[in-house]
């Protein structure tokens, strides 16, 4: 019996063993696969959960920075790492720097460096992301690649993955996760996960960039609005002050019967008008510069004479403030040079009048003009305008050549000025191929320096200028003075000119200015009338003064028609007289057939110079 029982048990065990063996043999592999699939599904679920959580969190009006950090936090938690970060490429400096990070607070990690690491061909990140378009993966501490800690600047990283982020087809930067304790055997699914998270976060980055651009644009708009307001209020002050003087002094003169007082008022009106003209010219120059339409012309001129004109202009103020003004000129400077005389004079006048303005009474001003070098036909001239005035502090110096900037607001209130002069001067000097700089210290005076290379002139000098001081500089002008017997009353006595000008007050000004010359002047109120008067009596006029903007027919049309008449019409000197004073305006006048251009407001001296040239054949001395 016992034997039977034992045999049955033995057979049962054998059958169970066989069944188990057979079952295990047949189903072991599918089981293993099923488990792997379940694990993969679980991972995918996790990924999907993370991505869903990420994208869900993006649909929020929270601050984008907060949303990005939340996304990094989710990444840390779901990937079971201790830090996630975003580093952005700065394509101007070719560096990559961490901009956002989230790390497990329990780990108390040092924040990632915000200083950009190099991002150029040959570097580890560049090669991985740009050259190979890959993720960067380090599985088992930095020994695997010692450059990683160096590149990340994050000591203690044992394992990491960094995936590239592309925004609008451009490499934006990288998203990374780090492990600091022990290595980590990353799976393919981990880098897949990071790639997905990196592409999911792109929309947030675009939003962050758009917000950043918006903030910048707003700040810029506010700044430019502020600058505009400041500029308008400064300009309003700069223009109203002389206007106030003109109107006030005119009223005083009108109500006065005292000749001396009237002359005084007229002097002040003249001064204020010239100042106003200077402000207007500065504004026009600056707007030309900003529109990129500021051009220079080039002609040969007498260097000493130009310098004299400049120094004459500030002489009055220098005397008024009892300042000591010394001019030192290198005897090697050529007497004649080729450049834009008017613009060079404008720069020097600006520097000298600033020196006078910002130097107290009895202070010193030096204008030094030296040869800094000479090569072939070019000579480099160095101008130094040195004053013992209020000086400029170091931080203010950097802003001086920026338009509308003045050293400080209180200076603007004390001394006035538009803050445009130095910006214009710098532009002119640079257009001439030169440079301008300043050395100054607050309270210790200033030294403005210009260095420009000018071409030597060919014609012989009118005057020889040598080492000069103020006294002998003023003598250089003598050649221009009209000899005593050649007074304006008799030299033009038999001359006759035609004046084409539509504005009555402008006609009146020319007639009054030329009254003492005894020139016969016929007036036309527009171009058509000028053409008619001239063609009726072509031999009568030895010169035509031609306004440009006129009704019926403008100055260009009238000039072309007069030239087309032939005979006297082809040769009669025609001088444009217009408030359009830019280089292209002058060129347009010449192209229409005019001989010269005179700017408005009219400079009496200039007008007489032209009349002497065309009516008497006196050569012009420049
Ligand atoms: P403006 O004199 O019309 O205001 P500028 O551009 O010529 O404009 O000068 C800008 C500013 O530079 C001045 O307002 C003044 O603050 C400073 N500055 C210029 N020249 C001097 C100088 N020689 N000494 C002291 N400050 C100066």
What does this structure look like?
- By secondary structure, the chain is of the alpha/beta class.
- Helix content is 50%, strand content 19%.
- It has 19 helices and 18 strands.
- Helix 1 runs antiparallel to helix 2 and helix 15 packs parallel to helix 16.
- 30% of the residues are buried.
- Mean pLDDT is 83; it is low at 462-484.
- It binds adenosine-5'-diphosphate.
Q: Would you spell out the secondary-structure blueprint of this structure?
A:
Layout: H1 2-58, H2 64-79, E1 83-90, E2 95-103, E3 117-118, H3 124-131, E4 136-138, H4 147-152, E5 159-167, E6 170-179, H5 188-254, H6 259-290, E7 299-302, H7 303-320, E8 324-329, E9 336-339, H8 341-357, E10 364-375, E11 378-387, H9 394-397, H10 409-415, H11 421-431, E12 435-440, E13 446-456, H12 470-475, H13 488-491, E14 496-500, H14 504-513, E15 520-524, H15 527-536, E16 543-546, H16 555-564, H17 568-571, E17 574-578, H18 583-591, E18 596-599, H19 604-616
Parallel strand pairs: 8-10, 14-15, 14-16, 16-17, 17-18
Antiparallel strand pairs: 1-2, 1-6, 2-3, 4-5, 5-6, 7-9, 9-13, 10-11, 11-13, 12-13
The structure holds adenosine-5'-diphosphate.
User: Pairing-aware structural class of the strands and helices?
Assistant: alpha/beta
Biggest sheet features: 7 strands, mixed
* Bound molecule types: adenosine-5'-diphosphate
> Which percent range fits the helix content?
40-55%
Alpha-carbon distance between the termini? 147 Å
Question: Which regions are unreliable across 5 or more consecutive residues at pLDDT < 50?
Answer: 462-484
Oligomer: single chain
Taken from the alpha-carbon principal axes, the silhouette is elongated
Number of helical elements: 19
Mean pLDDT, all residues: 83
């Amino acid at each position: 019996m016992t034997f039977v029982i034992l045999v049955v048990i033995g057979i049962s065990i054998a059958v169970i063993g066989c069944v188990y063996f057979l079952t295990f043999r047949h189903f072991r592999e599918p089981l293993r696969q099923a488990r792997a699939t379940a694990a993969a599904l679980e991972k995918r679920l996790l990924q999907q959960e993370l991505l869903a959580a990420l994208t869900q969190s993006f649909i929020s009006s929270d601050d984008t920075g907060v949303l990005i950090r939340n996304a990094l936090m989710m990444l840390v938690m779901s990937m079971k790492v201790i830090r996630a970060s975003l580093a952005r490429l700065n394509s101007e400096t070719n560096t990559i720097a961490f901009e956002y990070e989230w790390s497990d607070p329990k780990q108390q990690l040092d924040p990632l460096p915000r200083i950009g690491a190099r991002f150029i061909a040959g570097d580890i990140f560049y090669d991985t992301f740009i050259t190979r378009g890959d993720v960067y993966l380090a599985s088992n501490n930095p020994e695997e690649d010692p450059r990683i800690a160096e590149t990340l600047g994050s000591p203690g990283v044992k394992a990491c993955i960094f995936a590239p982020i592309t925004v609008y087809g451009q490499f934006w930067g990288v998203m990374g996760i780090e492990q600091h304790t022990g290595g980590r055997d990353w799976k393919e699914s981990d880098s897949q996960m990071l790639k997905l998270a990196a592409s999911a976060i792109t929309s947030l980055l675009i939003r962050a960039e758009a917000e950043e651009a918006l903030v910048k644009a707003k700040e810029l708009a506010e700044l430019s609005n502020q600058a505009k307001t400041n500029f308008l209020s400064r300009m309003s002050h700069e223009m109203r002050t002389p206007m106030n003087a003109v109107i006030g002094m005119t009223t005083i003169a009108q109500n006065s019967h005292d000749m001396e007082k009237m002359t005084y008022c007229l002097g002040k009106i003249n001064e204020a008008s010239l100042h106003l003209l200077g402000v207007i010219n500065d504004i026009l120059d600056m707007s030309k510069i900003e529109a990129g339409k500021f051009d220079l012309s080039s002609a040969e001129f007498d260097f000493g004479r130009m310098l004299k004109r400049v120094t004459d202009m500030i002489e009055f103020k220098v005397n008024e403030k009892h300042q000591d003004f010394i001019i030192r000129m290198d005897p090697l400077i050529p007497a004649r040079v080729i450049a834009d005389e008017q613009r060079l004079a404008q720069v020097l006048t600006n520097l000298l009048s600033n020196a006078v303005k910002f130097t107290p009474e009895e202070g010193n001003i030096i204008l030094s003009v030296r040869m800094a070098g000479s090569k072939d036909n070019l000579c480099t001239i160095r101008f130094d305008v040195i004053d013992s005035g209020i000086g400029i502090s170091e931080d203010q110096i950097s802003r001086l050549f920026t338009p509308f900037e003045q050293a400080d607001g209180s200076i603007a209130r004390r001394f006035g000025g538009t803050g445009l002069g130095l910006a214009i001067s710098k532009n002119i000097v640079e257009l001439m191929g030169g440079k301008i700089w300043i050395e100054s210290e607050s309270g210790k005076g200033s030294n403005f320096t210009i260095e420009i290379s000018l071409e030597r002139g060919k014609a012989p000098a009118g005057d020889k200028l040598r080492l000069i001081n103020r006294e002998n500089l003023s003598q250089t002008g003598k050649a221009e003075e009209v000899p005593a017997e050649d007074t304006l009353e008799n030299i033009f006595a038999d001359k006759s000119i035609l004046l084409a000008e539509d504005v009555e007050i402008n006609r009146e000004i020319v007639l009054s200015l030329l009254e003492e010359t005894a020139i016969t002047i016929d007036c036309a109120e527009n171009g058509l009338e000028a053409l008619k008067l001239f063609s009726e009596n072509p031999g009568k006029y030895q010169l035509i003064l031609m306004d440009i903007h006129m009704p019926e027919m403008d100055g260009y049309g009238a000039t072309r028609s007069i030239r087309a008449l032939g005979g006297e019409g082809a040769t009669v000197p025609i001088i444009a007289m217009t408030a359009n004073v830019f280089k292209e305006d002058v060129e347009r006048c010449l192209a229409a057939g005019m001989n010269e251009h005179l700017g408005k407001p009219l400079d009496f001296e200039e007008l007489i110079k032209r009349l002497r040239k065309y009516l008497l054949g006196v050569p012009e001395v420049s």
